[in-house]
Amino acid sequence: EPKRKAAFGSVGRRIPHRILHVIDQDGESLGHMHRADALKLMDQHGLKLVLLRENAEPPVYRLMTGQQIHEEQLKRAEKKKASPKPGSYVKELSFSSAIAKNDLETKTKQIAQWIEKKHHVKVTIRQAK
């Protein structure tokens, strides 16, 4: 079975690449360096190496504190939660043009809740007899 993509976090000392592009905790590029040099730098400053872009040549790693890693994980979780799911939901509501006032208010509240949850809403109004 294929390996699943690991969650964002420290890669520890398991770095499969020999040459890395390293960025420090302030976001400044330290350039290309050998894996052993990056590990020494990590130990000297008490930081952790985090893989940012594996597909780049060479792969991009960033030195981060535990707090920075935690904040980035929270940001990514929020972004994932906020993004619409594949095959986003379409909520459909239909009612007659002769609807009672309280029923109309109830359905309006329901539509507002769906819109807050970022659902698409389709409203159909049928003509009363």
TrEMBL record:
Transmembrane segments: none annotated. One of its GO terms (molecular function) is translation initiation factor activity. Residues 11-78 form the Translation initiation factor 3 N-terminal domain. GO terms for biological process: mitochondrial translational initiation; ribosome disassembly. Belongs to the IF-3 family. Keywords: Initiation factor, Protein biosynthesis. NCBIfam families: infC (TIGR00168). GO terms for cellular component: mitochondrion. SUPFAM superfamilies: Translation initiation factor IF3, C-terminal domain (SSF55200), Translation initiation factor IF3, N-terminal domain (SSF54364). This is IF3M factor. It comes from the Eukaryota. Pfam families: IF3_N.
